[in-house]
Amino acid sequence: MRFDVLTLFPAMLEGFLAESMVGKSIQRGIVEAAVHNLRDWTTDKHQITDDRPFGGGAGMVMKPEPIFSAIEELRSEQSTVIYLAPDGEQLSHSLVMELAAKPHLILLSGHYEGIDERVRENLIDREISIGDYVLTNGTLPAAVLIDAVARQLPGVLGEAQSLEQDSFSDGLLGLPQYTRPAEFRGMKIPEVLLSGNHAKIEAWRQEQRRARTAKRRPDLL
Ligand SMILES: C[S@@+](CC[C@H](N)C(=O)[O-])C[C@H]1O[C@@H](n2cnc3c(N)ncnc32)[C@H](O)[C@@H]1O
């Protein structure tokens, strides 16, 4: 699967794409990721990407020309072009799974007051928000989306982590986890986890997941 990110701040993604599971999946060739500076598609001496809004008002708006040029160069019939936007549809587990089945995502990060509406109307296939709050630009939202999607691809997590009991994977939240030592500062782990009885442990885990979901996210049940 391939990701192309269009941003004014490519350096923000350097560490993210080199580290952890996403970094490993790129090294293994499961994921391809390229980060592009939108200024590379400007044609003026000062590489200007923003201008004042028509009609007045505070702030600046990202100009359409470099964005059109960049997307027209990068996209193919296989591509889904996504604008990260606070007023887009909210990223969720089901949307992540849908995106993980796509071969190529182009992720456009906005800045300032956002982008010229003609880009949204004519070039964008999906608009996605990572939550009901506003960030200064869409580069971190692009990273969030890549991370969430990449970890669903076969071979990315390896055996060290499983997707099955992740929160939201089957509509429930995740389970309480414990590791060694079995007793720490007088705090003991639940007896059942030391029982060696796999059926009992599994039943306990499912019960814990249901109870946690009922308490914290009853809307999921
Ligand atoms: C300061 S925001 C613009 C906010 C815009 N004026 C509004 O009120 O919707 C600048 C850019 O950050 C990104 N952004 C900010 N918050 C976001 C969120 N919650 N989800 C996705 N992208 C976000 C978008 O790409 C946006 O164009």
From TrEMBL:
GO cellular component: cytosol
Pfam families given in the database record: tRNA_m1G_MT
Domain of life: Bacteria
Keyword Plastid: no
Entry's EC annotation: 2.1.1.228
Residues bound to S-adenosyl-L-methionine: G110, I130, G131, D132, Y133, V134, L135
Role summary: Specifically methylates guanosine-37 in various tRNAs.
UniProt-listed NCBIfam families: PRK00026.1 (NF000648), trmD (TIGR00088)
Name of this protein: tRNA (guanine-N(1)-)-methyltransferase
